[in-house]
């Protein structure tokens, strides 16, 4: 059984920032990366947090595949749109720059749209889109990613899990933050089933020949499937268009791996947007409408096996509230790896509560 | 077995326009509605075409639930956004006005976004989004719709099948036009299975108690399910926010029926958008990138049971090309109903080839 230690948010941030600085990035950029890694972990997304990403980010910064001192800049800015060149920096740092620019463009034009090239893995999509909420805007964030998913009707990996995130500011009843991969499941779930010797449900993946499989080992050699067949495939393709084609970033199998070729840039693309609600309605009025929609949804009787109906993003926000209080749970195995990182980068080890 | 007659595009248009004019709408508005109904039919979407919609649209125009002489206008226009009041006119006419405005705003600001209230059923989503393609823009079109779908974890109808359409201009290899309901299937497929006494696959719908069912009759009394559970539910909720909340249109169960209460406005809302590609890249360059993406996707080896990998929208475009040549197939049963319409509205009956 996995056991966990509890770590305070501040301490996790301190640790991540010091490792990233030691790996060669500036204090400011290390702070942005640490914030994203800690926020993801705080919201229960260890797969996008310190647990899974800190070590590989630090290794890429050292090896040069992730530029520790990127010169991020807008290479084109026309009306409500811009193209940002990330100079192969961390996707978190590049994404922060691009989302800030999208918000600035939206303040001027009512909406702002920024396509990004020459970037890297950017972690949790919702952390960028969420930036817009504080400005009374709807935020958008998508990224292309390493090819793992078969197109509908195909049997080879061609598209990433290509997430879509849309964050909408709400009223007293909370925001709606949809952050979804366009594949049925993430690769991690299949890897976990293989480790634990469990079958996977039919429909998650196909084997190397493109045949539906319940065998997680065969599935790991094959590819993930898009959610809802042609629908998830269509959404993934649209994400590829927005994240890669608008900026001229790499797409599909040209995108570099995160975990291999540490010295090679991934040339990943992203897309960010901000839509100012006040161009349509006074923000207070919109917030009141959001409250009515949330109350309406919450009043729907639940199906068997459900206690309540949740909003997109609500489970994660609840976890964050609890973990902020109780400390963030980090698995013992992960703690061991972070202790090794501490030695490697010569920073004080992570203190648990 | 269903038998079909072939009808020429022009003749179908003539017939639809005359019926709609006889039902009280202006020649110009009847032409817009007829164009949308014929285009949907031409692309193989009889559910959004003359076959299923002409009669009910004419009846609503006569009964007053669809305003035959609407005063459609922008009630708010700020920077790259606008709110359009449809004065309870046909969603096709209102949508055309709103999408034209979105394109105009995009010509000025690089992107344009129009939220619509006081509208009605708008037919096929892609016909609006597609308008942007000719302008070198990406088009967006969503609509809220009559509540038929349970939220994830719920057992009552709360959200519409809430389609999302995104249309992207391509190069020589064609455009990408994704037009998808956010439910697993449309209600029509379940109604058809009930008529034919076939079971439906598990996962399409739940019965009145919210239990998964393969019985199409029980499913018809229950509700449709969102595609991919929480993912489709999240997308449907986002569509509701964009289509209803930004403009202040009705949402959820407040949206009026299309087929009942013919004298009552539906108060439906839509959302349209246009994103000018040239703010990111020269259009020719983008088109070349699209061709490379399409070639990449088409080169993926096919899975068992598939001959080729299709782009979103490609099957419909192929049908349109064929039907334009061969005539549009209209089922005999539908022809009979259209003959009755011809009598009721005193127009020449539809001529088949």
- Name the assembly state: homodimer
> Could you estimate the helical fraction of the residues of chain A in percent?
40-55%
How many helices of chain A? Answer: 11
Kindly state the number of beta strands of chain A. 11
Q: What descriptive keywords fit this protein?
A:
homodimer, about 350 residues, alpha+beta, Hypothetical Oxidoreductase Yiak, Chain: A, domain 1, Ribosomal Protein S8, Chain: A, domain 1, seven-stranded mixed β-sheet, two-stranded antiparallel ribbon, 11 helices, globular
Map the helices and strands.
2 copies of one chain form a homodimer.
Chain A: E1 4-7, H1 9-22, H2 27-42, H3 50-63, E2 73-78, E3 81-85, H4 91-109, E4 111-119, H5 126-129, E5 137-143, E6 164-168, E7 176-180, H6 187-196, E8 205-206, H7 216-221, E9 223-224, H8 230-245, E10 268-276, H9 283-298, H10 314-326, E11 328-331, H11 332-345
Parallel strand pairs in A: 3-4
Antiparallel strand pairs in A: 1-11, 2-3, 4-10, 5-6, 5-10, 6-7, 8-9
Helix pairs in contact in A: 1-2, 1-3, 2-3
């Amino acid at each position: 059984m996995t056991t966990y230690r509890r770590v305070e948010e501040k301490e996790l941030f301190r640790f991540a920032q010091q490792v990233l600085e030691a790996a060669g990035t500036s204090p400011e950029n290390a702070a942005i990366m640490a914030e994203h890694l800690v926020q993801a972990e705080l919201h229960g997304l260890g797969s996008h947090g310190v647990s899974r990403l800190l070590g590989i980010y630090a290794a890429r910064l050292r090896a040069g595949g992730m530029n520790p001192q990127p010169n991020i800049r807008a290479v084109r800015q026309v009306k409500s749109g811009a193209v940002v060149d990330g100079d192969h920096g961390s996707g978190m740092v590049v994404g922060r720059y691009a989302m800030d620019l999208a918000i600035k463009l939206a303040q001027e034009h009512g909406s702002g749209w920024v396509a990004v090239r020459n970037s890297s893995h950017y972690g949790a999509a919702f952390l960028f889109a969420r930036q817009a909420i504080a400005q009374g805007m709807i935020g958008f964030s998508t990224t292309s990613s390493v090819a793992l998913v078969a197109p509908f009707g195909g049997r080879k990996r061609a598209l990433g899990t290509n997430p879509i995130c849309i964050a909408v500011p709400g009223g007293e009843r909370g925001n709606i933050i949809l952050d979804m991969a366009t594949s049925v499941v993430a690769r991690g779930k299949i890897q976990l089933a293989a480790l634990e010797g469990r079958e996977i449900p039919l429909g998650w993946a196909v084997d190397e020949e493109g045949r539906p499989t319940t065998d997680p080992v065969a599935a790991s050699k094959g590819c993930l499937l898009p959610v809802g067949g042609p629908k998830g495939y269509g959404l993934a393709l649209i994400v590829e268009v927005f994240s890669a084609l608008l900026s001229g970033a790499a797409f599909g199998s040209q995108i570099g791996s995160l975990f291999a070729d540490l010295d090679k840039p991934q040339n990943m693309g992203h897309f960010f947007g901000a839509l100012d609600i006040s161009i349509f309605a006074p923000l207070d009025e919109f917030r009141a409408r959001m409250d009515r929609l949330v109350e309406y949804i919450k009043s729907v009787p639940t199906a068997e096996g459900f206690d309540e109906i949740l909003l997109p993003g609500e489970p994660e926000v609840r976890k964050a509230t609890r973990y902020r209080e109780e400390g963030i749970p980090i698995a013992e195995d992960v703690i061991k790896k972070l202790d090794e990182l501490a030695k490697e980068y010569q920073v004080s080890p992570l203190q648990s509560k």
